[in-house]
Amino acid sequence: MDWGNFWLELWENHRGKVIGVLLGLVFGLMVISFGFFKALFVTLCILIGFWIGRRLDNKLGFKESISKIFEKNNQ
């Protein structure tokens, strides 16, 4: 069995499951290492960083992103 083709086929056909398993594994290891609440805090920081990075990649400025959050909450 060619492992390269196996991983490629797994990624192409089951991408969501692969990502879910990897995220679960990382979070589980963080809970073991840091404890639940510290792992939850680190995960929250990662998600906020991802969100900000995605906004910057889409050419939305930080100020525009923050103003959009508050505009949605006021409506």
Proportion of residues in helical segments: over 70%
Q: What is the total domain count?
A: 1
Outline the biggest β-sheet.
none
Distance between the termini: 57 Å
Q: Give the overall silhouette.
A: flat
What would you note in describing this structure?
Helix content is 88%, strand content 0%. The chain is built from 4 helices and no strands. Helix 2 (15-34) crosses helix 3 (36-57).
Key structural traits:
75 residues; mainly alpha; 4 helices; 88% helix; 0% strand; flat
Write a concise synopsis of the structure shown.
The chain contains 4 helices and no strands. It is an all-alpha fold.
Furnish the topology, listing elements before pairings:
Elements lengths: L2 H11 L1 H20 L1 H22 L4 H13 L1
Helix pairs in contact: 2-3
